[in-house]
């Protein structure tokens, strides 16, 4: 999972936990706040009533016809106020819940009770507010609070996602730059525009590391090119001398056999050196890409060239390309060598009465040229090292893959062709060459 996704998920999860805790805490908290506000309101009404009594007298509430009592409920029974004369002084000053029967209906109220004295008489004042009304207000408040919290969480998650994307942009630039590197020789160190010291340190470390790899790679290419070139001359001289000796009619037969074997060994050594020299020249871009290559014609000519070898190995060879695809700015000889080596391996490591198919088709990203075989296949752990010229892979039959696939990869990189290998041991292997759309045109 990408770092940005992990940061976003962690941020969202942490906010979800906070939201859950608030959902558990808000209801009792809102209820306490609602009760506190109700008590304050009851106290304010008490002060208002006492002020009216002080200014206008108790008669403004209780007259002689009222039998020493006064009561008033609002229309929906949400609030009430009552005054009642009591026979003796009882100190009461409380706020508590209480059940009252109003017009045959029992209603629970939050009631403020207070006793006071006016002109030698004692009175009990009660002011109440319906708990059902308080509960409705509390539910409404809780609902809006939860909506607000959810909105805040969503907004902060979006902000975190945007911020993490901006924060990690330098890292994405480093990754994309590394993904575009075809081989070490193509790497160019670049400065990173960021104020994050960690990313600056990472970029500088990669630049230094790639610089060392690039230097070693260039030395290795130079060494291979020089050594290959220098070795070809003495090997050619040895081959010429052996050929001259082989023409001697007085040469004993057992010496003749050994000399023929030496000639084969020298030929194999020369082939390896020429391959290394070819790879070095391609990597040093000593070949021109000034030809237009029709991939269908290329596949047909490779199949024609190698048909006799396939017949000897009792392997069927088929070309199935329905669409012409012309690759501009290419090198025909190198592409021929690339495809020939893959088809040759497909025949070499196939089974008797097996089959090799060269097929091509246009896809969304360009053109895909595939070489499929029904051979012995390649183990999954060997595929990552398949094109490594320094690691020799052994097939199940005891034979080994040489430098041919290294040439294939080098030519593909030289033409910016992507290589994919899929293989199932015992069933076969598929090599896919992906030609970019921008690099080619469809033949009319």
UniProtKB/TrEMBL annotation:
Residues 226-439 form the Histidine kinase domain. Keywords: Kinase, Membrane, Phosphoprotein, Transferase, Transmembrane, Transmembrane helix. It catalyses: ATP + protein L-histidine = ADP + protein N-phospho-L-histidine. Its main location: membrane. GO terms for molecular function: kinase activity. Its EC number is 2.7.13.3. The lineage of its organism: Bacteria, Pseudomonadati, Bacteroidota, Cytophagia, Cytophagales. It is found in: Membrane. Gene3D superfamilies: 1.10.287.130, Histidine kinase-like ATPase, C-terminal domain. It comes from Pontibacter ruber. It is an enzyme of class 2 (transferase). The chain crosses the membrane at residues 144-168. It comes from the Bacteria. This is histidine kinase.
